[in-house]
Amino acid sequence: MDIFNFDVITLFPKAFELINNSGVITRALDKNLIDVNLHDLREYGEGSYRQVDDKPYGGGAGMVLKPEPIYKAYESIKKLNKSRTLLMTPQGKVLKQKDLVRWSTLDQIIIICGQYEGFDERIRFLADEEISIGDYVLSGGEIPAISIINGLTRLLPGTLGDPDSLLDESHNSSLLEYPHYTRPLIFKDMKVPDILVSGNHEEIKSWRRQKSVERTLERRSDLISNEDLKKSPQSKNTIKESSQFMKVRIKNEQDNYPDW
Ligand code: SAH
After folding, report:
1. Which end of the chain has less Cβ packing within 10 Å, N or C?
2. Quick check: helix, strand or coil at residue 98?
3. 27 pLDDT exceeds 70?
4. What are the φ and ψ backbone dihedral angles of 44, each rounded to 5 degrees?
5. pLDDT tens, 199-239?
């Protein structure tokens, strides 16, 4: 299998030390399944100060990344056959699991990380896609880039110990994953559901499916609101019953926030 190449243009290459520190990704690096090439934007900066940013035209707060260093860094990267360039920006399309799956068959992903107040608008022309990792603003594109490298790498064949663990997980279909338990059978008076120790694989499968639907309705009904799933008899029942589950809190106080 060909090696998957990530080429990242960043002002903070050190931030990427984190990726070689986490089981699955370290294994992928060791097994030569991925290569992460960091392109230090500073090296492409201008003048003796290696300037990469400047004040915004028209005034206003903060500094903006200049176009020339990013274009130079971009042009220095050898483009492979199946390559895609992603620009990290909170104004982009919000990242979904299906994007990671779609990109996982490429040879190369080039990621451009912004910093400060953002980047010169002309940098957008380099990107095939603009990606946000959520509706919040971070100080740089490094954490979004690491999220993409991490999420994509674990989809590559040979990366995960057990490839089956990719099949059921949340966001693969429009459903969240069912609850998991491991030993001990009873912990602080909380008991593992009997069905999971029944040995009846058909019933376990159907229980898990049911829990997936319930859990998705409780927490993320937006994921399935338009899906055929609602039409299946099993799901209809679950929807009826779900009003009682709706009261279950996800424990992040999400429903205490005001609507902005
Ligand atoms: N002023 C800009 C935000 C700048 S944040 C605006 O309002 O759009 C600085 C950089 O961090 C961005 O250029 C981007 O590369 C990165 N960044 C911040 N939040 C992000 C998010 N949610 N998703 C992806 N990249 C993000």
Report:
1. C
2. helix
3. yes
4. -105, 5
5. 999 999 999 999 999 999 999 999 986 544 555 555 556 55
- Rounded distance from Cα 95 to ligand 1 centre (Å): 13
Which of 184, 179, 167 is closest to 218 using CA atoms? 179
Answer yes or no: is pLDDT of 85 > 60: yes
- Closest C-alpha to 197, from 189, 209, 185: 185
The residue ranges of every structural domain in the chain are 4-153, 186-256
Q: Identify the residues whose C-beta falls under 6 Å from ligand 1.
A: 88-91, 113-115, 117-119, 132-134, 136-138, 140-141, 144
Confidence of residue 2 (pLDDT cuts 50, 70, 90): confident
233 Cα to the center of ligand 1, angstroms:
44
The whole-number pLDDT of residue 166 equals 84
Distances (CA, A) of 243 to 4, 98, 176, 181: 45, 29, 18, 25
**Whole-model pTM?**
0.89
